Amino acid sequence: MSRRLSEVFLQAKSANRAALIGYLPAGFPTVDASVELMNAMIDAGVDAIEVGLPYSDPLMDGAEIQFAVDLALTTGTTTDVVLDVVGRLDGTRAAVLVMSYWNPIERFGVERFAKHLAAAGGNGVITPDLTPEEAGSWLTATRAHGIDTIFLVAPSSTDDRISTVVKNTSGFVYAASTMGVTGARSQVGAGAQALVARTQMATDLPIAVGLGVSTGAQAHEVAAYADGVIVGSAFIRCIRATPDLPAAICAVRALADELAEGVHR
Amino acid sequence: MPTSESAVTSGHFGPYGGRFVPEALTAALDELDAVFRSAIIDPDFIAQLTQLELSYTGRPSPLTRADRFAVHCGGARVYLKREDLNHTGSHKINNALGQALLTQRMGKTRMIAETGAGQHGVATATAAALLGLECTVFMGEEDTRRQALNVVRMQLLGAEVISVTAGSRTLKDAINEAMRDWVATVERTHYVLGTVTGPAPFPEVVRYFQAVIGREAREQIQLAEGRLPDAVVACVGGGSNAMGLFSGFMDDPSVQLRGYEAGGDGVETGRHAARFAAGSPGVLHGTRTYVMQDEWGQTIPSHSISAGLDYPGVGPEHSWLHDSGRAKYEPVNDDEAMDAFALLSRTEGIIPAIETAHALAGAIRVGRELGSDAVIILNLSGRGDKDVATAARWFGIGAPEGIEMVEGR
User: Is residue B306 part of a domain?
Assistant: First the structure.
């Protein structure tokens, strides 16, 4: 079992900073390289790794992540492989999460997925297309295996919705900063701060902001009001801009360093 | 057993349906649900919709008895429900106009749509032009080639057509892209989903606007035959034309409901769109339903000569009708569909859409099975103008000198 999310957020808070959560799809650009890249992110101070489970129809993702998961699928990154990747990450220093659309989990078997993920050392799952209303069997299975269930709130969520979502969430609440898909943006959505404030009214859980954060400056801005900062597409973009794995590792480390600096308040 | 009334419990059809979408869309789906439910009990809305159906679409569509075609259907009496005669040439206009009115009711100014064969895109572009709304249509790149004529029609109607190059470049990817647009623009945009699938309440909304097909057909057949049909037959891509026809006979246990999905090159080849014959329950595009998927839950790209049936999912209510046995679904391969396409053209003087040709092949099977006393209604869901280039290539008919075939470029 890798580090618990609750620990990660507590420790960040006591260091007067937000937790930094980095995303990369398993299998991008290859299975082994994705393990090295994610471990490099941990070396550079990422508090939690979000391992993307590649899916054929990622309807919440923008161009960068679509490109990366398409590539990962062509290199044979099945659910088994993703679970193996989870087990190869350095969980002594970071929490390890999986980000997955719902169908691959349902197909693998809800109970079986929770069990295998726990066995591999994973401790939470972000499900971008699952809302609590459809999550009955998922909540039962994850609780039985000590897996946190991270659901999303969005700027369009009513206060009633937020309260339903947070009641079923554990670990942290994922606040989508903007109405849109994943991808680096020049500005983090203006509604993010208001959404975090509304979510804080409904829960004591940590709240992490994702969608559109790509630089240290943006991370710093978000860290002023949120408990965590989630960065995904920016890592993929910097890997794509490098010619080989050693260069990619350097680039990922540099970006993670910059972001880890940024999350200090 | 499913009935017309029991269908929906909070957006579910038995174990199928539901809402598997990013939280960001929940508010928009709740709004659609509320506006839809208030509209369908509002006499002004009903009057507005009925008036459009009458004066713009050209409803009711005729029920045509097809005796020369029926000779090939075991001598059964075969009636064609002529949705091909609607304005824009298919049943898709029924839903597009209904949802366009809902768009106005929600105070939104822009509609987006996915399209496979282009019929739903054309219908939505038409409704947008009529009501003065902006329109963007997402279409897989492969489909923009197969259905070049409809791309031009949409552009002439003032719609923006976005060619989708992601994934398999067909209908499934067009839906992904439309969803991505919708999440980012939902405040002023309504997503006019074209078939009875997607997150709740879409399957119910689209069925409601297509139910006019079944209502009319039920009245018309009783006038013509003095009794109900023995079977009603339709092709099933997402399944909106089928659900429209079936819904008129759902509570009549004596009426068999028969749906025909695309068998492509043959189910055994793996190149097909036969969700019931070769798929399994899963979640795709916001709903739980039968899906073509591999052992890991990744969607398997579908294949069919018909762009409109080339989809790896199906409406969730069909999945329920399938499991309960109320409706029966079978695949029809490309070659059998194209034989039926030629047969109807030559026996009745009606060139059908290739989608519809799958239902025609089904009617031939059902007629032979039920015999000459049987009465069958087939939903002639669309006309075949858009498919002329595909058919010409299939049958090896050369274009006369000086006439260019546009398909394939």
Answer: yes
